[in-house]
Amino acid sequence: MPVTIYHNPACGTSRNVLALIRNAGIEPDVIDYLKTPPTRDELVTMIADAGLSVRAAIREKGTPFQDLGLGDPALSDDALIDAMLENPILINRPFVIAPMGTRLARPSEVVLDILPDSHRGPFAKEDGEVVIGDDGKRVR
């Protein structure tokens, strides 16, 4: 099953999502989007396929969002996409693309919506929160 994750190894949520994908028995294509950002077309497609607005796909915390004035509601989607491509840290993460759909996996367990139910065993996030139980099923 081909799965791609736009990953930031410094992000705990992104690390948890990568681990959840691997726990499902899938070795994804891991793209460090800060080093290899998506193209304009790829970014626009990811956002649309995830069912998000461009604004919902922008990361504010720990980015130049405020300094660039990106909170201005008059800015067009194209202007926001331009800013995200110029400053990839503005792209919220992790985006995951799989045959079953595309998601911005925040919180990390959102990725389970687009993965097969093939978990290798229990899984807990870095903070200890159990996401997959001993029975290999999602904990709700």
Strand-helix topology:
Elements: E1 4-7, H1 12-23, E2 29-32, H2 40-49, H3 77-86, E3 95-98, E4 101-104, E5 123-124, E6 130-132
Parallel strand pairs: 1-2
Antiparallel strand pairs: 1-3, 3-4, 5-6
Q: Which residues sit in consecutive blocks of at least 5 with pLDDT less than 50?
A: none
Q: Helix and strand succession?
A: EHEHHEEEE
Q: What is the class in the CATH system?
A: Alpha Beta
Strand order, sheet with most strands: 2-1-3-4
Strand content: 15-25%
| Protein structure class | alpha+beta
How far the N terminus sits from the C terminus, by CA atoms, comes to 25 Å
Helix content: 10-25%
**What does the average pLDDT come to?**
95
| CATH architectural group | 3-Layer(aba) Sandwich
The major pleated sheet works out as:
4 strands, mixed
Overall number of structural domains: 1
Notes on the protein architecture:
This protein is α+β, with helices and mostly antiparallel strands. The chain has a single domain, classed as Glutaredoxin (3-Layer(aba) Sandwich), CATH 3.40.30.10. Helices cover 23% and strands 15% of the residues. It contains three helices and six strands, in the order βαβααββββ. A four-stranded mixed sheet has the order 2-1-3-4, sandwiched between helices. The protein has a two-stranded antiparallel ribbon with strand order 5-6. The longest helix is centred in the first third of the chain and has 12 residues, at 12-23. It starts with a strand and ends in an 8-residue tail after the last strand. The model has no long low-confidence stretch (mean pLDDT 95).
